[in-house]
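Hi W., the manganese (II) ion complex you wanted:
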Amino acid sequence: MPIFTLPNLPYSYDALEPHIDARTVEIHYDRHHRTYLNNLNASLEGNENIVTGKTIEEILANVEQVPTEIRQKVINQGGGYANHNLYWAQLSPNGGGFPTGKLAKAINEQFTDFNKFQEAVTNQAKTIFGSGYAWVVVDNASKKLEVMQTANQNSPLSVGKTPIMTIDVWEHAYYLKYQNLRPTHIDAIWKLFNWDQIGKFYEKALK
Ligand code: MN
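Structure:
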């Protein structure tokens, strides 16, 4: 009985065309995301007691409580699982445009305007060396929006931040279509952000 399961992709493989091609979505979701999940469940075999009843987010936020012998596996595979759960949920074939409501207000207050915000997030994504993610997070203490980057599959949850939006810059996220042109992919993904959903993540992170 697996502890964690793969969330359904909320659209078809070709729904994010032309910005993200169908083959990339299929491989990214059905192989990469699924493999992180399977590896996470495998790494937890025999340690079910420490995770039963907890979300992957709760586990990553308290990762120092995971036994040392499996901790790095949970950081890598659990991070890969959780990061991709957020990644797919925040995208939509009907995405793009601008945030509204409380999220829009916070962006304007903290980043001056949407363009400055977009520039800050894009800059985080474009300056990652190697594999990792750019993030928009809510700091759990100050409740302020922040932008940041993490390497590998490290989650902002493990450093006191709640992620609400992300750009995956691992090569598997774009290489079939964009090859070495990572910056072009980063610019294109803005056409896909589901601001209604990201706004809900934001309001949940404030609680
Ligand atoms: Mn990925």
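The pocket of manganese (II) ion is lined by residues 28, 32, 84, 168, 170, 172-173 (CB under 6 Å).

W.
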